[in-house]
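Let's practice the habit of predicting before peeking. Look at the sequence and jot down your guess about where helices and strands might fall. Then scroll down.
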Amino acid sequence: MDKKGYRRGSFQSSTSDEDMVEVAGGTLDFSMVDDVPPLDREMAEGFSSYNGGGMNGSSKMMDFLEEPLPGVGTYEDFNTIDWVREKSRDRDRHREITNKSKESTWALIHSVSDAFSGWLLMLLIGLLAGAIAGLIDISAHWMTDLKEGVCLKGFWYNHEHCCWTSQETTFQDRDKCPEWRTWAQLLTGNQGGEALAYILNYFMYILWALLFSLLAVLLVRGFAPYACGSGIPEIKTILSGFIIRGYLGKWTLLIKTMTLVLAVSSGLSLGKEGPLVHVACCCGNILCHLFTKYRKNEAKRREVLSAAAAAGVSVAFGAPIGGVLFSLEEVSYYFPLKTLWRSFFAALVAAFTLRSINPFGNSRLVLFYVEFHTPWHLLELVPFILLGIFGGLWGAFFIRSNIAWCRRRKTTKLGKYPVTEVIVVTAITAILAFPNEYTRMSTSELISELFNDCGLLDSSQLCEYVNDFNSTKGDDLPDRAAGPGVHRAMWLLSLALIFKVFITIFTFGMKVPSGLFIPSMAVGAIAGRLLGVGMEQLAYYHHDWGIFHNWCSQGADCITPGLYAMVGAAACLGGVTRMTVSLVVIMFELTGGLEYIVPLMAAAMTSKWVADAIGREGIYDAHIRLNGYPFLEAKEEFSHKTLAMDVMRPRRSDPALTVLTQDSMTVEDVEAIVNETTYSGYPVVVSRESQRLVGFVLRRDLIISIESARKKQDGIVSSSVIYFTDHSPPLPPSSPSTLKLRSILDLSPFTVTDQTPMEIVVDIFRKLGLRQCLVTHNGKLLGIITKKDVLKHIAQMANQDPDSILFN
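Done guessing? Here is the structure:
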C-alpha cells in the first residue's frame, strides 16, 4: 500500500509500525500528512563524511556523533518513537549544556535560557489556548442565537447582549426586547398569525442548522480530514509515542477551530469540550517548533502535549486543577513530576486568559456555573447512588451502540458519504429539537437551566411552583408543591432525555468536530433533575414519613433538584469516559461547592463500577481499538502464562530472522535486504554462524546513511564493505573504500531470554515505551518481539481478532 510520507529515496521505504510485517489495509492516506514538517528537514546541520578507509585508508574520518546526519534518529509517519533513545539523547544534550556553562558567561546564559524555555512555552500555550477558547465561546454563542433571530442594533450581538442595554425590557420577559427580532418578525413584519410565525421560525431554524453543518463537514473534508471527531483517542495514542503527522498541525488547528463553532451552533448533540483538548494540543505542537529542545526530541514534545491537554480541559470547564488531573488520569502515557508542575502552570495561564476575555459576560469561565447553599442529608446518598447506577448503565449502552454504529460506518457504504450522513443527522436533529424548548436551546444552556437552584425571581418553567409566601424565610425557599409549569417541564424533559440518549449515538464519530462531555452531562442532568423534583414532591407531600421525619419538616428547604442534576451529570460522564478523580474535581470546580464532593464521589464510583461490570473499556479506549491504533493500555493487567518464545518472530515455520553482519556485508547486500523487506530495523550479529548479538540498526538510518555516503564520499560503490565495528576489517589493497556505520548502531538494544514470561515483557514495553525487544538463548540471537506483536498477542489472549491491530 502506497502511503504518502512513507517513501524516502530509492529504497521504496514503506515501513510498518516498528514491525516485521507489512501494514495491510491502512486508510490513513490523507493528502496533508506533511502538515507539520518531519523532523529530518529541521536537522539540516550538514552532512558528515565516512571512513572510506579499507587498507588504503586515506579518507578523512568523521563520526556521526560529532556532526549529525540530517534525518538520522528521526521517525517516519505512523511509526512509534523509541522512548529510551529519545530520553538518552535529551540527557546527553543537557549534560553537554551543563558542562559548557562553566566555560563562559555566554554558555551560562544559554544554559539558563534552556532551563527557562519550558516555562516560557507553557506561558505561550496557556495564552493561545485561552484566547482561542474565548473566541470559540463567543462565536458559538452568537451563531446559536442566529438560528432564532438577529439583533437590529448590530448583527454581531447575541440575544442576551442585545437585550442587556434595552430600556423596554420587563423583568418577567427579560429575554424579549424590541431590538431583538425573530426571523418570522423580520420576514413578515409582525403580519400574519402565530401559526405562520411558528412555521417560519421552524423553517429558518432548520435552514441555519443545515447550512452550519454542511459548511463544517465540507471544510473538514476539503482541508483537514484530521479535524473531525473528538480527538482525544488520537491524542492518547500520540502521547503513548505514536506519530501521526499533520494531526496536530496548523491546518488542523485552523479548520478545527472554525468547524467546532459551526458544529456546536448547528444544534447537533455534541459539545466543544473534547475538541478543545485537541485544539490546545495543536497549539502546543506548533509552539514546540520555536524551541530546539522540543522540536528535535519527540519524547520532550510529548511532555509539552500532556501539559497542553491540561490547558484544554482548563478552558473547556474553567477547571485548572481538574484539567491537570484529567491529563494525568485519562490521556497521558508518561507524566513525570516536572510535567505536573508545568501542566499546572499552563492550565492556570489558560484559565486566567479566558477569564480576562470573559466570553459569557458573567465573570465565569463556563455558561453553567452554579452555587448551592442547602446542605445534603445522609439519606440522599440512596438517590445519588441510583443516579450512579443509571450513569453506568447509560455509559455502557452508549459505548456499545456507538461503537457498533461506527463499525458499521467503516465497513459499509455509509462511510463513503460523510456529507450526506451529517446533513441527514442534522435535519433529523433540527426537526425533532425545535418543538421542544429544552432541546431547541443550546446544550450548555440546558445544563445551566437544569443545574439552577430555583429562587423567587426565576421565571423558568422549572421554577413554577405554588408559592406560599407566609412560609418564606429570607433567601431560602421551602419545598413547595409543583405548579402546572413544573408538570409541563417534566414531560418536556422526559421527551428530551429520550431524544438525547438516542441521537448522541449517531452524532458522535461523524466527520465534524464532536465532543462527548456536554451531551453526556445533559443526559445525566435531565435524569437527575427529574429524580430531584420527584424527591422534592415526595418530601413535600409525605413529610411525615419515617425517612423524612428527622430532617425534612413541613416548610423546610431540604431537597435541591439542581444538586441531583449535577450528580446525574457527573454519573453519566463517568459512565461514558470512566473518569473518577478528575471528574469529581472538574464538577466541584464548576459548582464551587466543596460540601458536595461526597455525593459526586459516590455517583462517579458507582457509575464506573456498573459500567466496568458490563464492559471494561471507556469510550476513548473503545475508539482506539476500533481504529486499530497501536496503544498499549497501562491500566490493564496481563495475566496469561505465555513466554517470550511463544510471541517472538520468526515462528518455527517462518523463514530465518533477517540480520546484518558486523563486517562482512557489502553496500549491495544491505540494499538488497532493505529492498526485499519492509522491516523497520535489523539486528546486527558477529556472523551468521555464531548469531552473537552486536546491536540493532534502524532501516531509516541505514537508508539515509548509505544514500548520503554515495553522494558525498568518493569511492563508495556497490561492492564497498559496510562495517559496524571500531576498526576496518582486513581487506585486499585493491578493494574499494569501506563504509563505517558504527555511530548509527544501537549498541544496547533491549534483550530478554526466550524463557522470560510475557507478563514481564508486556510490563517492560509499557514502562519503557519500547519499539522492539530482541530475544536471545544462551547469548545467541533467536528472534524479535515488536510492540505490534505484543498488542496482537494481548488481543489473541482476549479472544479478539489479532489482525485488528492495524491502522484502519
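How did you do? The radius of gyration is 31 Å.
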